[in-house]
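Incident log entry.

Two folding requests arrived from the same account within the same minute. Monitoring flagged them as a possible duplicate submission, but the sequences differ. Recording both here for audit purposes.

Request one:
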Amino acid sequence: MMKSMQSSPADRAQVSRKSPVLALVLAFFIPGAGQIYMEKVARGLIVLVITTLTIMLLFGLISWFYGMIDALILSNRWNRELERNPYSRPWNQ
């Protein structure tokens, strides 16, 4: 006679409930941590990686924009200095 593949309730440990508030707080402070707490490790790691890449891209865009504005400001300052003294390089003062 074949034994049943399912174990009896006495053989299994009771699964504990998960706190929705804790899942939310973890996800607030560390992207993907709420999913990992909920035992969805792959999903949590995906959220962490996507969030990290998005933040890096955002800072990269901000830095690029800053670089463009800074170059514009520097070129205007250079030209103003040359108008005052056309025989001196502005940054050597």
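Request two (distinct sequence, not a duplicate):
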Amino acid sequence: MTHINAILAPCGALLIALTTACGGSGGSGGAADGAPVAGSDLLPVITHFDNGQVETTGTLDAEGQRQGAWQVFAFDGQLLFEGEFVDDALDHSQPWTHWNSDGSVRYDQDDGPHPAGGPW
């Protein structure tokens, strides 16, 4: 299995920007957490900050691409992004929300495609 840090490397820049804005210092990586999702080849993934807080949750396919629901959290545990991915790209046809560190909505599906293509 590909090392999770290499798989999630594209996440780094935004995660660092988001966590810095929320008092964090970036992530410590993480590990695949469990067996493949029943009836599929998707592997559940949870990454954590050094303080133990969850940084990201989601699922990866056999090629290491994000698939399905993903969440990104701030260093303090606040939810910053939630959305669906298909083949490692944000699925703009499904509901998604990107929050500011104060909890207000920064962007959501009503704004059209995410300005950066997604939270990463």
